[in-house]
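Weekly structure sync, notes
Attendees: PL, DS, HV (note-taker this week)

Item 1: Zn-dependent oxidoreductase, NADPH:quinone reductase
DS walked through the input record. Source organism listed as Nostocoides japonicum T1-X7. Sequence as pasted into the shared doc:
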Amino acid sequence: MSAVAGPAMRAWQVAELGEPRTAMRLVDVPRPTPAAGQVLVRVLAGAANFPDVLMCRGEYQIRPELPFTPGVELCGEVVEVGDEVTGLAPGDRVLGAPVLPHGAFAEFAVMDPATTFAAPPELDDAQAASLYIGYQTGWFGLHRRAGLRAGETLLVHAAAGGVGSAAIQLGKAAGARVIGVVGGPRKAQVARDLGADVVVDRHTEDFVEVVKAETGGRGADVVYDPVGGDTYRRSTKCIAFEGRIVVVGFAGGEIQQVALNHALVKNYSILGLHWGLYNRYDPPAIQECHRQLSALAAEGTVRPLVSERLPLEAVADGVQRLADGDTVGRVVYEGAR
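Item 1 (cont.): predicted structure, written out as tokens:
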């Protein structure tokens, strides 16, 4: 059962598909009321993610019925608890995924307790809103899928973005040597500040040659690739013996064809990562991942890079700049406290 309507609130809605700046409209809508098994939260912060862009375009695997409010990741304060909910109470500060069509880019959102977690007190609202998708994706990709070990070389593409920045910090926390690939000097400095040992500006350098030079010709043990297309193809030229390429997404817009004969000849693995499936097939692993990330946040080892903190009125523009590749770190809507 979905939430029902309550008092009015402001929210961004997509009524017609398209680019975020034109598809999203800030409107007054009824505030949702949690159904049984749901909680209502006041949105303290909502982090923009590439799936928000794809949902606006109608290109994501999840296609909410129109109109819907985008925003797949938030930090919020519980204000109302539906029937059959235990372990959560009004006043709790939480993070996780809202239940669409009541997404994060609004004053209030609805959440499912299964994807709702205590927000680490060491992180502010915008940082906590950014800890869920990118960091859980990185943790499962690097540890569960790739088995990253201390001393190995990790190559991270789009290293100054939300997903890539998380992978740099998690790779360093695991004891890996991290090579980050970015586009432009501004993003290069961000990757250095995040802790990357080597930074490659793809506009002026060939990451294949840099990786080979930095590893004595051996190549990267793990490649973390949220870009796809030619980035993936060229990564196969600098993957180590028994290396692992983690396919995270296709932000470059092209879904590449994989040459399996090349994987056979060079003896490397191609690993797909659909992080959301762990909620279905292994929910305890999601809980354990959050415990690990909270511990790293408490230590100060991971700290989401929030580059922009936006009022509600500026959200559509921020999501569009994310779509255009003009952002670094995380772009986050901050609600009124």
